[in-house]
Amino acid sequence: MSSWQATCDLPSFAPLTQDIEADVCIVGAGIVGLTAALRLVRAGRRVVVLDSQQPGRGNTGRTTAHLASALDDRFSELARVHGLDAARMAWESHATAIDLIAAIANDEAIDCEFARRDGYLWLAPEHDSDILRRELETVHAFGWRDVEALDEAPVFGGPCLRFPGQAQFHPLKYLAGLCAALVRSGVAIFGNTRVEGVAGGEEVVVTTAQGHRVRSGAAIVATCSPICDLFAIHSKQASYTTYAIGLEIAAGIVPPGLYWDTADPYHYIRLQPGADGRDILIVGGEDHKTGQADDGERRFDALEAWTRARVPAVQQRRYQWSGQVFETLDGLAHIGPDPGGAANVYIATGDSGMGMTHGTIAAMMLSARICGEASEWQQLYAPGRHPLRAAGEFLRENANVAAQYADWLRPGEVSSVAEVAPGAGAILRSGLSRIAVYREDTGELHACNAACPHLLGSVAWNHLEKTWDCPCHGSRFDRRGEVIAGPAHTGLRVVDPRTLR
Ligand SMILES: Cc1cc2nc3c(=O)[nH]c(=O)nc-3n(C[C@H](O)[C@H](O)[C@H](O)COP(=O)(O)OP(=O)(O)OC[C@H]3O[C@@H](n4cnc5c(N)ncnc54)[C@H](O)[C@@H]3O)c2cc1C
Ligand code: FES
């Protein structure tokens, strides 16, 4: 079963096969990279985009595409950590991002099903209605006056807040439209081109795995999790795997809208119009830290059971998929100069589950900065910030990462390669090493050292996606050990399976 977006075809691009020059080199062709490329080419810059896969194959191809200016980590919490003015700026930046997506879709004639919706935050049964009261007081205090409290949330019942002016769209139709607009404007997009090095300076040099170089005046590392930073940013954000399902439902039963609750992890729901009088109810949640659980089917089933208990009219499950989100300490993205100090290198990361709007904010801010313009949101999203009032969260997340290194002392999951079933992966101990072993359905074995090339976490098997996932900062590798997602930018070290018992 695939994701609901997978029905959309995106263009493919050939790899980079020579050294080239540009004004700006963008690494990563998700919503951040492609939106930034459009802003920059419209500002007259020569832009090159490189992607290790193809546009839209990262988390933008897995989003449930709520376009929200209502922060899911809640404005009352943001106001506690950063003050009321910061909460107002966060709201304004996300609302501006939604407006920009609407404007780009309109200007470039992108048929991406953009539609305005109301958003509803309703109270999880275990929570006190004080949560909603505090949230309403905060948004009214900073000026979002038309948010209102309702006694009965549509569909889910119980007290809720209604946030007007939210939206939804089809993310891959949007990306396909962005690609077409970029190609028309002369932007060079290269697929299957993995970047291994980003060296900052007056001239930024981006080096690909094939050894080609792009020389430019600036680079945007738009790889969702930055591949240019070893530690600074990854100690301030955490990688979570989140799950989503699409259930058929007769049209008209669930009113169009974005819905989410106060639970932790929370549930996020919206309606996708379907064909033949049937809509798709998209339901997400069941998050866990990447690489720290391997029970995806149970989580899909839990989402379905949770939905059936509340919306008994849902019919069969048509879609299911998972992906990653990067949670920051304060629920705001990290957007700005590389905190490692590489000159003219910029990052956009820490989507906090709101990567469609955070990604569009990043594209606005970074393109403006590269063009020499200031942004009033610069401090709010600065990658170097240390929110002191979120210190507890910082300690909790980093203690969790430190605990993952204990895996190196644990025995293997199998004691010989013969125990690895076809289509399965398992960790085998070989002396002091842990070996990630995968057996193809044909019986062929692949083996790699389980040490993640980022900071030596021990990868774990994800049988749903058939990937090796790192429990420390969320790097992911395919079943043969090739890197799919950073912060690692190289694969696992291959081991000859004939040397294993
Ligand atoms: C199930 C799910 C539901 C979600 N729901 C929502 C939602 O409702 N609303 C919302 O706003 N957000 C949501 N998100 C979050 C959102 O999808 C992401 O935050 C967003 O797509 C990130 O966009 P991006 O451009 O930063 O990264 P990506 O889309 O991941 O793009 C990064 C690109 O970089 C490329 N890349 C990686 N490494 C390299 C390298 N070394 N060299 C070259 N290229 C490289 C990848 O191939 C990829 O194409 C959801 C996420 C998931 C998984
Ligand atoms: S992602 Fe950091 S150690 Fe693996």
UniProtKB/TrEMBL annotation:
Organism name: Nannocystis bainbridge
SUPFAM superfamilies, sorted: FAD/NAD(P)-binding domain, ISP domain
Alphabetical UniProt keywords: 2Fe-2S, Iron, Iron-sulfur, Metal-binding
Domain of life per record: Bacteria
Pfam families attached to this UniProt entry: DAO (PF01266), Rieske (PF00355)
Name of the protein in question: FAD-dependent oxidoreductase
Residue intervals of the Rieske domain: 412-501
